[in-house]
Amino acid sequence: MNQPVLSIDIAKGKSVAAAFTSYGVQVKKPFSFSHSPDHVSSLLSVLVQLEESTTLRPTVVMEATGNYSKPIASFFFSHGYPVFLLNPLTTHELKKRSTRKVKTDPIDAIRIANAFYLGEGTPIMPMDEKVTELRFLCRQHAQWKALLGEVQLQFRSILDLAFPGYDKAFQNIFNPSSIQLLTKFPSPSALLTADKEDVLTILMLNRRGRTWNEDKYAQLLGIARSSLPDPCGSQAHIFAMQNFIGLFKAYQEGITALEKQMESLVQESSAYHLLRSIPGVGPITAAMIHAEIGDIKRFPSVKQLTAFAGLDSSVYESGTFKANQNRISKRGSAYLRTALYQATVGGISKQIHGPRNPILWQYYQQKRLEGKPAKVAIVATSNKLLRMIYGILSNDAPFQSK
After folding, report:
1. Which residue ranges does the record assign to the Transposase IS110-like N-terminal domain (predicted)?
2. Is the pLDDT of residue 245 over 50?
3. Chain-wide mean pLDDT for the chain?
C-alpha cells in the first residue's frame, strides 16, 4: 500500500508520532510531542512534506483512547486530513504476536502504522455539531445514573445499620416523602419521639389520603419499635446517611438538568421522532440511540451498524473446527448496546392489551422456544431491533406494526 501515513501513539499530555510513505518505508523516526497548540500544529509541516513527496493526501492513524485521542483527532480532521482510529485491542494483538515482548511508545507508533497498512482502523466521519453535543450529554447521563445507583446501594447498607426494617414500609425508599422522613428522623428512636403531625406532614407529600397515611404512620411506629440498630457508631451511621442523602439529591438534580438539555437538543431531530415511533423506545433511550448512531448514512449496510453496536457474532475457527455458538463481539459502542437492550426489554414487556411491541415479542418468544436463556434471547432481539432501526432511519419512515 503506497499510502503516506502519520501514525501517533497517544498518551496523556504527550504522544509519539512516526511518518511513513508506504508500508515498511519509514521517513521520519518516532518523535515525541506535547499536546500544546504549538506542538500539535507543528505536525502539519510533516504532513505537508509527506504529501509533497508522494503526491498523495496523508492519513493520520491513532488508537481510539477516549478523551486523550479526541482533541488530536479533531484537530487533524478539521484541517482536512483523513483520520483513522484503531481499536486498542488490535495493536495489543500485534504486540502479542511479536517474538520479543517489547512495549515502548516509539515501537507502538510503528505498530499502529502497520495495523493500518494491514487494513485495520475506522475512519472518522463528520458528525453534526448538535449530535456530537447530544452524545456527550447522553454519555454523561448514563454515567451519572450509574453513580446514582452506587450511592443508592451504599445508602441501603448504612440504612440497614441505622434503621433496620425501614425499607419494609416503602416500595421505593428513595421517593421524596421517604427521603425527607429519613432526613428529619434518621433512627428508630428519632421517629418514636417525633410529633405525630410532623411525621404525617411529611408523609402527605405522597398525595394520598389522610387515612392511608395514618395507616402508614402506624406501620412505621411498629417497625421502629421492633427495629434493632447497631449501637456501635450509631452517630457515625446517621452522619453517613445524611451525606448519602445529600449525594442522592445532587445526582438527581444533575440527571434532571441533563435530561432537560437532551430534550431541547432532540426536539428538532427527525431521526429522534422516528425512533420514538417504535413501541418500547422511550425518550432517553431514543436520544441515546440517535446520539450514538448519528447520521445513518455513515453505515452503508446494516451489517456495519451491527458491528458498530458490538452485536455482531465473534468468529472462532481453527483448522477444521468451526464454533457454532459464538458470543457477540462487544467491540462497538457500549452505550448503544445498552440503549438497545433497554429498549428491547421495554418492547417485550406486557401491557393490559398485550406486549408493547408485538414484533419484538414474537421474535423473543421464538428464541426462547429455541432454548435460548432469557438474556441471550433479549440480546438476539436487540439485534432484531437494530435492524428495524436501520430500516426506519434509512427509509425515513416511522414504525409500522405490519
Report:
1. 8-164
2. yes
3. 89
